[in-house]
């Protein structure tokens, strides 16, 4: 049968764990590619292509340099996945109950879209602080090498706003 009852707390928790695993692990696995992409966007003269970007990074930072930003990536995208997968199910049931069974079926595509958009709204709020730290670590040489270095520095320089400047672009994306 089923591992848990649809709409139960265990159901939402399992959806959230699925989001943590699928988003956190996959985004962390491609950190080297993301690092080079971000550096190409910030300094196209230095990082002329993907292959050149990998070469320059390896020469300057070694193999460990390709992992810069892995911690905020893992934490941020795990939080985003938790919210995206978990809240999608919460909103799908909530909006479905508001519409009633027949209308929820008739308007299911719109219901799923509304549930998805609502979940993504909160998921991006959860992601934004770690994404901001990741970008600073990856694109500002000498700023910080780890999450533990970046967070207090960002907060000290700009306050809490440093972590949420990118939330509106995330919503637009």
UniProtKB/TrEMBL annotation:
GO terms for biological process: mitochondrial phosphate ion transmembrane transport. SUPFAM superfamilies: Mitochondrial carrier (SSF103506). Keywords: Membrane, Mitochondrion, Mitochondrion inner membrane, Repeat, Transmembrane, Transmembrane helix, Transport. Solcar repeats lie at residues 10-94, 107-173. The keyword tRNA processing does not apply. It is found in: Mitochondrion inner membrane. It catalyses: phosphate(in) + H(+)(in) = phosphate(out) + H(+)(out). Belongs to the mitochondrial carrier (TC 2.A.29) family. This is Solute carrier family 25 member 3. The gene is Slc25a3.
